[in-house]
Amino acid sequence: MTFLGLAAGPAWCAESTARSLVAQSIANYENDWKAVLDYTYIERDVAKESSEKVELYQVTVVDGTPYNRLIARDGHPLDTEESRRQAEKYQKVLDARDKETPEQRARRIRKYDNERAFLKEIPDAFDMKMLGDETVDGRPNCVIQLTPKEGYVPDSKYARIFPSIEGKLWIDQHDMRWTKAVAQVIDTISFGWILARIGPGAHITMTQEKVGEHWFPKKIEVEGMARILLVKNRTIDDTIWYENYKRLNRSPAATDARNR
Fold first, then answer.
1. Is 161 a member of any domain?
2. Within a domain: residue 1?
3. Distance CA 132, CA 118 (A)
4. Fewer CB in a 10 Å sphere around the end CB: N or C, the chain?
5. Is residue 239 part of a domain?
6. Which residues span the domain enclosing 16?
7. E strands present in 14-163
8. Structure pTM?
9. Dihedral sign, CA of 97, 157, 119, 55?
10. Around Cβ 80, how many Cβ atoms within 10 Å?
11. Does the pLDDT at position 257 exceed 60?
């Protein structure tokens, strides 16, 4: 990443409004999220506790939503018994989806779609400040500061974290996509009733890369301190890598079936 000096940003960033850029980038993110259903890819989960643990997943779409199939652990292929268990799990998913009613299928896909619907609340959840421009991987980006907006009331479940975080967005000027998003926890975030709490100071960073005409996740990093079941403190140092995107050959009929 090459820093050009935020105060010397181009007129393009200065003349654009932060809110309009963020709103457009969210709409594009939504389109890319739908497009990734036409791809298979590898997800590599790296968790660092007392020692590093790595799990490798092959992600494929099964009748409208992604399925993560474990294929390797700590740099080694699964043993025969684990491979058998994973194959059985995958077959159960296939069998279950074959038996779904149209209503059940629509509900499953709607649940998947709703997992990111909270992003649409970002323009209302934050006060935004245009910081200028920065070059990332040779491409000009606008940099926008996000600060929780006083009085904001979340509409959706996942948007409840917004009053507890502040962050920055790097938006590619040509494609209007997020190159990078960084969030810092400024107040404790709770997940579930008593499942976990992430304390102030934790950082979440997401970077994306251009794949063909779309932008897909490249890496997500989470660092901080969590309290599990309100009893056990745990340092979080987890990274998820997304690699080897490959477009699937889908028939028009398959695409139409997704949109029914």
1. yes
2. no
3. 26
4. C
5. yes
6. 6-258
7. 39-48, 52-62, 65-73, 76-77, 126-136, 139-148
8. 0.84
9. negative
10. 8
11. no
